[in-house]
Structure formats: C-alpha cells, structure tokens
DNA sequence: CGATGAACGTTTACGCCGTTTACGGTTTAC
DNA sequence: GTAAACCGTAAACGGCGTAAACGTTCATCG
C-alpha cells in the first residue's frame, strides 16, 4: 500500500458528501425540517442512496450540526474583526454578542448544535466536545488575552480534585497544549465562562424567561458583566459594557 | 345556562383524559418515546380516538411536560421537607440540588419541559411561563426568605427600563401579587437566580461540559455559590456549601 | 317513552418518515 | 478484459401524525 493522490472516484465521493451537508443546511435554513428523504429529493436522488455516505439519520444530524457550528463561528470571527487585532477583550465581547444574536435568530440551529441528545458513545462525545469550532474560537481568545494580560488564575492546588484532574487532561474545545501545566487554572476559567455564556443564551433561546427581558438582552448583559472579573477585566468594565450594549442594539 | 355538578359523561371524559397523561408519562418513564399510537395502544384504543381529547401531538407533549414538571416539583418539595420549615435557605439549597439530580437522571423529561420548541402562541407561552410548578416552588421559597431576612434588593430606579417594566407586570411563575411594587426588585433577583440555575443545569444535562466536571458537580457548586450573594446569604456560605456538597453526594 | 343529537371510538386511508434488501449499471484496478 | 468495488434504483416494511366517514352509545327533551 502506498499513498494515493485523490483518485477521480474519491473526489466525486467527497463532493457529493459535501453536497449532502450543504443541501441539509439549506433545508433547515429555509425552515424545513431535516430528513433524509427531503435532502435526497432536493439532490435529485432517492433516499436510500444517502446510506452510501451516511450511516443513519442521527449521523447526518451530527454532521450538519458540526457544519452549522463551523459556519456560525466564521460569523463570530468576522464580527470580531471589526475591532483592532490587539483589542482582545473587545473582540471577546463582540464575539459573545454575535453568538447570542446567532442563537436567537436561528434557534433551530442552536438547538441542533447545543441541545442534541448527546447520548452517544464516549468517543463521539469526546470529538464533539473537543472539536466544536465555536468553542475553540472563544477559548483561544481567552488564551491570547491571558498570555498578554496575565490576569490572576486560580492555583491548581485550590481547585477541587475533580476539576484539577479535568484541567490537566482537558476535554474541551481549546488548544490547551500551549498552556503550561501550572497555568491550567485558565482552563477552569474557560469552563466557567462557557457555562455562563451557554447558560444564559440557552435560557433565552428556549424562551424560559420573560420575552421583554430576552429582547432587551439585560439578563445577558447581567450575566456576562458578572463574568468579566473572571478574566481580570473589571477595570475595563465601563468600556466593555458600552460595547456590549452597542452590539445588542444591532437588531 | 346554569352550573352543572359534573355529569357522568364529564367524569368519564376527565378520567380518560387523565389516563392519557399518566399513560404518556409511564411511556417516557420507561424510556420509550412518546407517540399518539403508543399511548393509544397501551390504553387499548386506536390512535385517532385520542383526537377526541387532544388536538395534536404537540398538545399532548405540552400537556405531559406540564405534568412531568408538576411531579418533579413534588419531589423537590419532599426533599426540602427533610429540613426544618424555618431553614428557608437550606430548603432552597436542597431544592436546587434535587432539581439538578432530577434533570441529570431524567434528561429526556428535562428536555421536554425546558428545551421545548416554544414556538407557540404568546398566549400559550404566557401560561407556560407563569404556571410552571417548579418555577413557583423556587420563587416562593425566595419570597419567603426575603420576607424574613429582608436582604438588600436592587432599587427599581436602578434597574434598566425594560427590566423595571418586566418586574412591575411580571411574566414568571411566582405569586407576585404579594410583593409590593417598591419591592419588585425581588422579581429581578428571582430571574437572575433562575438564569443561573437553569443555565448550568442545562449545560450539564446536554453534556457540553467535561463529563468529570458534570459528575463531580463542581461547576454547579461554583455557579450556585456565586449566586448566593443575590439572596444575601453570604454569611451562611460555609454551611450552605457543606449542605450542597452533601446533597450532591446523594448519587 | 321514544326520538334527537352530541360524544366517542373504529376503520380506512393518505402522506410522511428511517431503514433494509435485492438488484442493475458504472467505474476502477489488476 | 475481467473481476471487484462502488453507487444508484426500486420495492418493501414498519412506524408516525392526521383526516374523513361511519357506526354506536348515551344523556337529554318533547
């Protein structure tokens, strides 16, 4: 066995595979619900044909969820690019606001990515946990911020045992290899930040909060603001608060 | 038209209606998925017959969700009853821990109640928002706590406009009529607490967090502990922290 | 009392779904 | 050139929500 450059067949396979995903995304983007038959029909193909590419409906969902997350993250990054590259805190704020905007404008997509059954094998789970594009986007921003600002981290020996174990051999979407073992308190901070962000956005998306509060975004502001000290950003609170409210005003 | 005492027919109707709900709950409790046909079969009836009682599948889901929430709340209340009636803070801590235990042990039920489509009419929505048993349980505990302790509330004039409007004419599951207008800052505290609780539990249930951290409950402890000052419970932090960890140790 | 009409359940049917099986045609590889 | 791998089809199975038509039961009222 030697290495192949991609043969014609492999190219074609890759291509229809991609078409399956994009067609799926188009479907849900138009408010239809995702189904093998609908995707097949739109591709001018019969449903069982898709089984040459996908093992099951659930696998298709996972695939599309990953792609949806990837595309959404491109949007977050683009939004953050409106700020200078060295304004890491600002980019983070703009990024989380873009995340919230996306979630509220595409609740079905949000649900697909972040409220999936997740009753899958530990293996798949590990992949999903560690590969989420949006996760990497945010955690990396936090890492860069810390590398420059060196805000205070919790000391490893102050962390609960299970948390210490988790941050030393982490299972989160982040490039943790660049973080020295003694600085892994940063990973705990990433997890805390993610909890706050995910929590409040999920609450808003699923509508278990007064609609007026959702619309104004005040709960989001409240939770995010209260999380700023985690990143040693207390001193910038005013600027970031203003920035956040300006972002919320966009739609 | 005059008032009837319930006639025989109405009784029978009410009864089969209840049987539909309990049968549905039994189904999902056994890990099966909820479907009109399955419920009908288990009742020894054909599926279209159910349409005499429910207008659609979605309506059945909503109905069952409400019932599931009600039963779960009974469990929370029972757990809280392990503590003396005057230990309101302790009961609250035990209650939220029971909520988390329930959510993690019955993720499908949790999802049904708290991650529902919620794309329904404002009317239905209002009902769902204001009638959730679990919501009333927690908010009422907070109200009792405040009536005794009178911890500091945000002043109405310090709240953002939209929040002030929302707390003055609230849309949350709580007996707010007992709260004077000038004390409605308490409603905002209820919302903040609910956001924290819902957020971290949803995160854990849907598995978007390191499984080891979920299992140990440290993120839950972290979020809940950081929310204690909202209720003026800083001074009891140690006791409540110990209580919380003891509760988490239960399974 | 007997008739009337509402309430209720059945049968049948439609159109959707995921998935399996068996079968041809095409492309690749030896 | 031929054998094998690949890729699509058609047909079918069992499940789903839902609609329409049809009988049966039963409370009510003249």
TrEMBL record, chains A, B:
* HTH-type transcriptional regulator MT1864/Rv1816-like C-terminal domain ranges (all copies): 97-226
Q: Which GO terms describe its molecular function?
A: DNA-binding transcription factor activity; transcription cis-regulatory region binding
The record ties this protein, via InterPro entries, to:
Homeodomain-like_sf, HTH-type_TetR-like_transc_reg, MT1864/Rv1816-like_C, Tet_transcr_reg_TetR-rel_C_sf
Q: Which UniProt keywords apply?
A: DNA-binding, Transcription, Transcription regulation
For this entry, the protein name equals WHG domain-containing protein
Q: Which organism is the protein's source?
A: Nocardioides acrostichi
The organism's lineage is:
Bacteria, Bacillati, Actinomycetota, Actinomycetes, Propionibacteriales
């Amino acid at each position: 066995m030697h290495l192949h450059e991609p043969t014609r067949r492999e190219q074609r396979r890759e291509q229809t595979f991609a078409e399956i995903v994009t067609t799926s995304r188009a479907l849900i983007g138009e408010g239809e619900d995702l189904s093998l038959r609908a995707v097949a029909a739109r591709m001018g193909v019969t449903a069982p044909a898709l089984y040459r590419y996908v093992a099951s409906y659930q696998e298709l969902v996972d695939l599309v969820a990953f792609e949806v997350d990837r595309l959404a993250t491109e949007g977050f990054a683009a939004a953050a690019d409106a700020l200078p590259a060295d304004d890491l805190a600002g980019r983070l704020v703009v990024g989380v606001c873009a995340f919230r905007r996306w979630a509220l404008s595409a609740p079905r997509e949000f649900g697909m990515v972040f409220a999936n059954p997740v009753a899958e094998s530990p293996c798949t789970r590990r992949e999903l946990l560690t590969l989420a594009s949006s996760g990497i986007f945010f955690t990396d921003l936090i890492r860069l911020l810390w590398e420059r600002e060196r805000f205070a981290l919790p000391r490893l020996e102050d962390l609960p045992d299970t948390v210490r174990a988790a941050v030393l051999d982490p299972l989160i979407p982040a490039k943790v290899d660049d973080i020295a073992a003694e600085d892994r308190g940063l990973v705990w901070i990433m997890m805390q930040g993610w909890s706050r962000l995910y929590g409040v956005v999920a609450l808003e998306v699923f509508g278990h909060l007064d609609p007026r509060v959702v619309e104004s975004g005040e709960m989001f502001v409240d939770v995010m603001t209260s999380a700023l000290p985690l990143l040693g950003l207390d001193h910038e609170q005013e600027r970031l608060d203003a920035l956040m409210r300006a972002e919320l005003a966009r739609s």
